[in-house]
Write a sequence for this structure.
């Protein structure tokens, strides 16, 4: 009775406060444990207590009441991390201005999307849910854990993960604003300008506030405070190393430009996203400690990705750039393990190097590598269990575990895993992805300002 | 063990680089008689031959087996530890018709008009499209290049991925493309109501029936006047289909539409047809099997078509169709210039239930049969075209490396722009400092 009371009480109080995240206890028996950071361990058990990895070793006996998963003949690896996704979001592009750091994806998280469950079916446990690429400086992003089953958007958020923000260079911002609305930027020169302008204004803004805060302390000060601007607050946070920049980019020249901007404004943490021509400036990226999150082999869907190579990830990795492979796509994210495997065909990466591209490396890029991305005692129990090796084309995720709770069970889950059924939805209507789709998904929600084929198809 | 793996990885990388560097000196194909020796030969149609020889003479497979006498002076490639497979056939591409899919001036697959079966893909195939070498170095040697858009979009052509003119590339099959009236949604941006969708598809079916009626009348007039019924190119182009001489490629995906298409093909007594796409084929697999109409399905790496469907239905679709008794070929994703991923589409079908042998057939001999070119392509047999590849393992496995590709006896340079960029930029010179 007391428990029930507490439960009821908390369900009224909690919304808005810290979300109650379920954490599980579990013993995974007898699998090949791919730790990523500490080699492979044959016939090894992983004990999970209260959502964290408590012990990794042989012949661990299950504490009383703890559920056991038999992983004999299976591969146990860290849950896969997608550093570039747009799932679980109800809005992607605030495409009305080239500079919109004031918007935040954390306001539009949708826990009901079936795409979350489908991603679990591909062994994914953590996702960087990003703003789109219509703007040179886009919105803030949210790192989420796929705790599918909750109705509470707050529960999906990975509490304590560093703040991140989306930037975008090249064709998308120039098409959206220059071509679409006739305002700067229409060229890569303009993209550089609007970013430098925004940072310069932000510097002035913080100097004014610093000045005011200092003056305020002087007895008899009578001045008014500067005008508050959330936009400039966020930009200042970037300059003060409080937010990691994730910069949509393709061409080598624009990547190089952004590296110089970072140098000039003292921005230390930047991850280039897509970065199809990153291979051309790999030495520069490595020298500045910039990271890269790439597609395995996507190319030729627009001009700025025409001179791409599927060897991009391997070249970047071999040049010392912390590299990850991402999906930017609700389908591709279901087989990031296969996309990582392509670096063995294109560039001969080892199993360890290839798997790092979808585990510890994206964790580093999101600033969460102290919590997830490898199987180590003390880390969060986000785990994917595979039949066949995850880099094999025949690898099949069997269980996906988040915080010690089984969120995907290939054998036991029913076919229909929707959390909510729309009574107005027609049962017979099927959706087929547009075969002429020419964009990265970064432009979802910004079609209205574009003269794209996609847009025209919609008009028809 | 880990050290060994690293060393092996490094060695593989070094071997790759050396091979690519050597080959990069000659970007041309090389023609000549060659004996491929000591190979595991996956014939597809006649089992596996261990430690065998494939003899290529005059562009054809002259001999296959464990005991083949090699004419003196024949160049030999030692394939110890390697496998020989027939070239893979991607039955759903726009290779040669698209350079950059979003830059309209670089694409030639979508002509204006709803009923334009007379538009021929072969005319617009660019033999030097950058995607062609990118595709063939992965063992995909042959592709159906398909026009899209409208209702009757044009005439698709089967091409081998080597040659300097479309005719040199032509692989012996052309088919008329029909986009069957569609009740599915096109994606997140398609915000039509269910009623609007139904209206549009009913209208499209009425218009298809109208075209078919006109073509039937035209065919009669054409016969009666011995070809002097007047110049109606779109109707003329349909005559071979009406006569049962040419194949109608029917793109159809939603289960209801598949049923409607089967009914329509029966009503119109279309003799030669293939269903393509067929994303929801598994829902009506028995009906497709009963019709006897073969299927080219794919891409396999797709999302389920409905929110309530099991998450892996698209991966399982080819296997479920095959199990129901449908003749199944697998294609990759259309219109993305990543046709090199065809073996992975087949591999996913296997991971999610299809028999491996059936999946291999689905990208080799089955499409060859569907296109009426099985006497030349699709298996390693004496008398067939020497269109094959050599690799170091299971061709569906992601890390497998393809070392040689032969197309009609021509040995392909194992380079593409993507490998060239790798060679130039792996160790860029100068580095950070010039």
């Amino acid at each position: 009775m007391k428990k029930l009371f507490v439960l009821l009480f908390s369900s009224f109080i909690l919304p808005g406060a810290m979300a109650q995240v379920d954490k599980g206890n579990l013993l995974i028996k007898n699998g090949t444990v791919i730790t990523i950071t500490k080699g492979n361990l044959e016939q090894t058990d992983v004990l999970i207590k209260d959502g964290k990895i408590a012990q990794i070793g042989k012949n661990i006996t299950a504490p009383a009441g703890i559920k056991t998963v038999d992983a004999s003949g299976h591969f146990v690896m860290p849950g896969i991390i997608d550093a570039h996704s747009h799932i679980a979001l109800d809005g992607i592009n605030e495409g009305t201005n080239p500079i919109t750091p004031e918007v935040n994806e954390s306001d539009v998280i949708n826990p009901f999307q079936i795409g979350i469950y489908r991603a679990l079916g591909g062994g994914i446990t953590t996702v960087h849910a990003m703003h789109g690429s219509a703007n040179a400086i886009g919105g803030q992003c949210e790192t989420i854990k796929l705790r599918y089953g909750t109705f509470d958007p707050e529960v999906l958020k990975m509490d304590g993960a560093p703040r991140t923000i989306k930037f975008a260079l090249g064709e998308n911002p120039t098409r959206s604003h220059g071509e679409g609305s006739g305002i700067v930027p229409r060229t890569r020169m303009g993209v550089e300008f609007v970013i430098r302008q925004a940072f310069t204004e932000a510097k002035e803004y913080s100097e004014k506030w610093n000045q005011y805060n200092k003056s305020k302390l002087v007895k008899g000060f009578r001045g008014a405070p500067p005008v508050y601007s959330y936009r400039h607050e966020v930009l200042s946070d970037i300059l003060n190393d409080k937010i990691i920049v994730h910069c949509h980019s393709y061409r080598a020249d624009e990547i190089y430009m952004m590296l110089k901007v970072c140098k000039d404004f003292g921005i230390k943490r930047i991850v280039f996203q897509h970065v199809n021509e990153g291979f051309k400036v790999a030495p520069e990226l490595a020298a500045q400690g910039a990271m890269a999150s790439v597609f395995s082999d996507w190319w030729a869907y627009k001009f700025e990705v025409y001179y791409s190579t599927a060897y991009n990830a391997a070249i970047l990795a071999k040049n010392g750039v912390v590299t990850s492979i991402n999906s930017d796509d609700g389908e591709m994210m279901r087989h990031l393990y296969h996309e990582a495997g392509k670096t063995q065909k294109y560039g001969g990466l080892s199993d360890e190097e290839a798997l790092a591209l979808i585990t510890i490396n994206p964790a580093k890029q999101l600033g969460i590598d102290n919590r997830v991305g490898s199987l180590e005692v003390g880390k969060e129990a986000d785990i994917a269990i595979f039949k066949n090796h995850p880099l094999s084309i025949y690898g099949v995720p069997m269980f996906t575990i988040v915080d010690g709770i089984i969120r995907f069970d290939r054998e036991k889950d029913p076919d229909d895993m929707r959390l909510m059924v729309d009574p107005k939805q027609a049962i017979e209507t099927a959706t087929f992805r547009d075969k002429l789709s020419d964009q990265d998904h970064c432009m979802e929600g910004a079609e209205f300002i574009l003269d794209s084929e996609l847009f025209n198809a919609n008009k028809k | 063990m880990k050290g060994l793996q690293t060393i092996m990885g490094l060695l593989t990388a070094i071997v790759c680089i050396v091979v690519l560097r050597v080959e990069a000196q000659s970007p041309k194909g090389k023609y000549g008689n060659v004996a491929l020796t000591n190979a595991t030969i996956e014939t597809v149609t006649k089992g596996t031959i261990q430690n065998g020889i494939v003899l290529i003479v005059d562009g054809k497979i002259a001999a296959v087996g464990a005991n083949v006498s090699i004419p003196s002076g024949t160049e030999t490639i030692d394939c110890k530890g390697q496998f020989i497979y027939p070239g893979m056939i991607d039955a759903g591409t726009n290779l040669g018709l698209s350079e950059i899919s979003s830059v309209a001036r670089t694409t030639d697959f979508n002509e204006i008009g709803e009923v334009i079966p007379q538009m021929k893909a072969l005319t617009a195939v660019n033999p030097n499209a950058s995607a062609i070498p990118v595709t063939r170095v992965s063992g995909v040697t042959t592709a159906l290049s398909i026009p899209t858009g409208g209702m009757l979009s044009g005439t698709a052509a089967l091409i081998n991925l080597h040659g300097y003119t479309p005719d040199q590339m032509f692989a012996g099959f052309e088919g008329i493309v029909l986009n069957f009236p569609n009740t599915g949604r096109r994606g997140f941006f398609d915000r039509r109501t269910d009623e609007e969708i139904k209206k549009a598809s009913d209208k499209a079916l009425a218009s298809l029936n109208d075209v078919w009626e006109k073509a039937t009348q035209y065919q009669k007039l054409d016969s009666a006047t011995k070809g002097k019924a007047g110049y109606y190119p779109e109707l003329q182009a349909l005559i071979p289909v009406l006569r049962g001489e040419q194949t109608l490629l029917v793109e159809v995906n939603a289960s209801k539409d598949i049923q409607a298409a089967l009914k329509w093909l029966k009503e119109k007594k279309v003799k030669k047809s293939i269903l393509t796409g067929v994303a929801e084929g598994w829902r009506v697999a028995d009906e497709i099997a009963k019709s006897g109409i073969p299927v080219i399905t794919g891409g396999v790496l797709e999302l389920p078509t409905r929110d309530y469907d099991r998450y892996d239905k698209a991966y399982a679709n080819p296997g479920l169709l095959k199990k129901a008794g449908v003749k199944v070929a697998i294609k990759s994703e259309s219109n993305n210039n990543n046709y090199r991923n065809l073996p992975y589409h087949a591999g996913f079908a296997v991971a999610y239930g299809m028999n491996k042998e059936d999946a291999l057939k689905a990208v080799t001999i089955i499409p060859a049969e569907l296109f009426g070119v099985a006497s030349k392509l699709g298996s390693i047999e004496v008398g067939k075209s020497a269109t094959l590849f050599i690799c170091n393992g299971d061709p569906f496995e992601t890390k497998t490396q393809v070392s040689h590709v032969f197309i009609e006896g021509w040995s392909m340079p194992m380079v593409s722009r993507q490998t060239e960029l790798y060679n130039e930029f792996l160790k860029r010179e100068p580095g950070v400092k010039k």
Notes: Residues 299 and 305 of chain A are 5 Å apart (CA to CA). Confidence is low (pLDDT under 50) at residues 1-16, 451-460 of chain A.
